[in-house]
Design a protein that fits this description.
The protein is of the alpha+beta class. It has ten helices and 20 strands. The protein has two domains: 172 residues, FAD/NAD(P)-binding domain, CATH 3.50.50.60; 142 residues, D-Amino Acid Oxidase, Chain A, domain 2. Helix content is 29%, strand content 27%. 49% of the residues are buried. The chain binds flavin-adenine dinucleotide. Flavin-adenine dinucleotide (FAD) binds next to helix 1, strand 2, strand 13, strand 18 and helix 8.
Length: 371
Amino acid sequence: MRVAVVGDGLVGLSAALHLSRGGAEVVVYARPDTIGQASQVAAGMLGVMAEREWAPIDRLMVEARRYWKEFADLLTSESGIEVRIGEEGTFFVLQREEERPHLVELNRRTVRLGFSSEWFERDECEELHPLLTGQFIGALLVLEEGWVNPRRVYPALVQACEEAGVRTVSEEVVQVGVRGGHAELLLESGERVEADGALVAAGAWSGDLIEPGLAEGFSTHPVRGQYLLLRSPGHVGWPVVRSVAELAYLVPSLGADYLYLGASVEEKQWGPPEDFSAAFRVLDGMTRVMPGLAELEVTERGYGLRPATPDGLPAIGPLGEGAVYVATGHYRNGVLMGPLTGKLAAEEILGEDHGELLGPVRPARFASQGG
Ligand SMILES: Cc1cc2nc3c(=O)[nH]c(=O)nc-3n(C[C@H](O)[C@H](O)[C@H](O)COP(=O)(O)OP(=O)(O)OC[C@H]3O[C@@H](n4cnc5c(N)ncnc54)[C@H](O)[C@@H]3O)c2cc1C
């Protein structure tokens, strides 16, 4: 079976790897530049707890978290690049009394999902995270909230794909449609390519590529996220820190000398930011909790475009008669979910059915929602 994968982010490449290992002949079509790509600039949190409104897909997220261990081992063995998962947990920091209902809800969810948590008073936190010396009440540590370093994961995935025989073509795809039961790609050069199946995994750009009429009501848009890297050579063994009520977080990079501070949430912004003021506002907020952050050198500022759908949940499944499959819309959770999504999408393209797990994220739901 010949499958064309459009998009070389975490979702597209994970699918390509599994398709190839499943016996398909796979070609990945990727834009020559990676401007705006989310997968390589993400913080890398495998955060099941953070997204309250994602409750309809709790099971899928828990499975995605579980699958990461197997995926990290697979990448390490296939690429020779060690992919590690941070296992010191995540501190959810309570800054103000009025945020307590969020924390109570978060803790309930921890129990419901079978995760473990432990409350630390303010003065106890510093022992686990030396920067936690500022103004806050205390923090809930959730141990199962792991993280990875996307800057190690991505090259490992590229290498594993190469080893598995995946071919990459550096060319933008203009449209993906169906002709005579087959998938057809129109490339920027004007060439038309036919395949038995196509997977659209082009992140925030996915919706614009699909032939009109094939995916009623479905679209994607970007939610831009700005981040900063702060030089910090000695952070081994620190947990991640997240604020309970806001979107800010600080992730100790695995195997590198920086802390990753993120991230702004800017709806429908395609291009680069004019300045990085939104990222510096996140830094200001976190400095109240961790005053020592103000002393650290900013070594990089950057952004990525998170892919979002109209209802905010991912879209994973076949379109129309099934020759074209879509896997996108992972919004703030594509690092957590990308590897499992890629595996399930690949298996469905090769004939399996994961309807039980993927039911809530089928793209067909948008037609019934009237767009
Ligand atoms: C600042 C930031 C922090 C984040 N932190 C986390 C986190 O901690 N944990 C987490 O789980 N998630 C996080 N995310 C979200 C996560 O990064 C995304 O959900 C995920 O990477 C999306 O992967 P993707 O493969 O769908 O899209 P992308 O990574 O965006 O890849 C899509 C690819 O398709 C290519 N493409 C687009 N159009 C075409 C075309 N026409 N032809 C060919 N190729 C095309 C693009 O060039 C791109 O390389 C974060 C995102 C950002 C921006």
